[in-house]
Design brief:
By secondary structure, the protein is mainly β. The protein contains two helices and 16 strands. A ten-stranded antiparallel β-sheet has the order 7-8-9-10-11-12-13-14-15-16, with no helix packed on it. Strands 4-3-6-5 form a four-stranded mixed β-sheet, with no helix packed on it.
């Protein structure tokens, strides 16, 4: 029930149980999490630009209603991209260099250390490719880090930091004839308007975990700043913040001799107003929402 299709660069079309499959850009109908903390905007839209595959340890997919316990109120469910900690890293220092067709060059460096109750890990990746099609060159610079501190066996806090620079040219759409006979061609409008999607994103998040006599309490907080310069048929120039808090309680109980898992969560994300900084003819309104789930 999971469908993934590459468009260009790191732009994906990802659908679970056909939710949002008609979307040709951005993501709808799916909650995107990184280390269990939302990366979507408060209106539910999201992108995969800040997800670095080389900084991941695993990916968890929660189809449909299974994502409700993680704050997802969308039909598709949720997908959680998990990054390692210094305790679970493959090695203290990792260097990687890759190259391939269409001008692809990717380099990555990861370092991690454990110092008593403190641990930290950082991953920096630079990814360049000229693209299969004309006017589809992409340059990605991504930094992910997390710092954890264990106050006691029952109390731990972890901060997540991220900075992402994306410069992606857009090749536009083709007619059926061009797609079949000249698939590397870029649309004329994409070339004349030098269409692109350039973003600058910074992310900070925290998860504080308290193990109780019965169950566990996780308190997530996050703030994401995103600057978008997006010349298409018009120039969209936006800058804004998404932030929120989400407490979550989980426990495993015995009910009538049977195991009973009890998740309960609440999420209150908010977007600050985006302001047009140049000649953008769009000015999205601020949006906020509250979601809760229990079972």
């Amino acid at each position: 029930g999971v469908f993934v299709q590459n468009r260009y660069g790191q732009e994906l079309r990802l659908s679970i149980r056909s939710s949002g499959i008609a979307r040709s850009y951005h993501t709808r109908g799916l909650e995107i999490l990184q280390d269990g903390i939302p990366t979507n905007q408060a209106d539910g839209s999201g992108d995969y630009y800040q997800i670095d595959p080389l900084a991941l340890q695993a990916t968890e997919v929660y189809k449909g209603g299974n994502g409700l316990a993680y704050g997802s109120s969308t039909l598709g469910g949720a997908i959680d991209f998990l990054t390692p900690t210094a305790h679970t890293a493959v090695a203290p220092n990792i260097l990687r260099l890759e190259g391939g067709s269409f001008g692809t060059v990717r380099s990555s460096a990861q370092f991690s250390r454990v110092v008593g109750p403190l641990d930290f890990i950082g991953t920096f990746t630079v990814d360049h490719n000229d693209g299969f099609r004309q006017h589809s060159r992409g340059q990605y610079e991504q930094f992910n880090a997390n710092i954890g501190y264990r106050f006691s066996p029952n109390v731990e806090t972890r901060f997540y930091l991220g900075a992402y620079i994306v410069d992606q040219q857009l090749p536009g759409t083709l007619s059926l004839s061009d797609a079949l006979n000249n698939p590397t061609k870029a649309a004329a409008s994409a070339l004349s308007g030098d269409q692109a999607r350039n973003t600058r994103t910074e992310r900070i998040a925290n998860r504080t975990t308290v193990k109780l006599d019965v169950g566990q309490l996780d308190i997530d907080t996050w703030a994401i700043h995103k600057s978008l310069y997006h010349p298409i048929f018009q120039v969209i120039d936006q800058d804004g913040w998404t932030y929120g808090v989400a407490p979550r309680y989980t426990a495993t109980l015995n009910l009538g001799g049977m195991r009973n898992d009890v998740p309960s969560s609440s999420s209150a994300p908010r977007n600050s107003p985006f302001g047009p900084n140049s000649d953008s003819s769009t000015s999205p309104l601020a949006s906020m929402g509250a979601r809760s789930a229990s079972g």
